[in-house]
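RECORD CONTENTS
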Amino acid sequence: PKSLAEQFFKEDCCTYLDALEWEQDHPEQAENLAFPAHVAAYNGDFEHVKLLIEQGVVNINERDERGATLAHKAAGQGHLKILQWLIEMGASMELTTQSGETPKDVARRFGQLACLKILGGDGDKTETNQKRHQNESTKQDHRRKLTPKEEERLRAKTKLDQLEKQVDIAKKNYRQLGGQLDDDQKHETMEQISQKKIEELENQLEFERLKREKRESELDECRNEIVRLVAALRTYEDKMRHLQQRPPSGIFEQKTKKSLSASNKRQKRIEKETGLVFMRRNSLNS
């Protein structure tokens, strides 16, 4: 058919036949439109896988036509980051493909030891199955020992957990579509109140800082004034000490005047007693 289309220059038919041949040669890439998350997990495109799951486009445990999940694809190619994220998000690691393989079995088959370690060790499949059966039998034995009321309570608790998970998924999808829940509004209101309180405390802290700087400036001025007054006081004390050590110039004149006044009084007393008059001789005339 392709040769006839080329012979008669049927470009549309040639393009269609080329696409069919490419899909036959690349079956994994041909699944892009049907299972984009599986292809992203297979290629190790973590951001694409995360976006598709968080946006609710695909389910975290979605299966392809062979029954493989995203964990099977990531484990088979050794993409640790995607596998670890899927485990943290609650993806089931016990789901099997049409051939009965879990993600751990796929990792073991392709020799992805790091993924095998994350998924719970490198033991044989038979040992894993035995442990699984033992756990299931233990749970069944434990349930057999429960009373009817306890079994009802256990079923109710399991149902409640499932509903809570579904509610969480629905809330995430609602938020991603632009919706806002009452809890989100309360949380936003609390954040606004907290932010306002923080701003008030920051303003108060700034005011106290400026007030402290002003007090420190006044304290520095007081210290400088104290230093100046101490220096002036010491200068005054030095001057007083110097004046005390140096004798004053007027003491000798005072003593001379006292001696002259005493001699004058003595002369006057002698003149009164004797009747003689003493004549003062001027040293300059003599």
Observations:
- The CA atoms of residues 78 and 114 lie 7 Å apart.
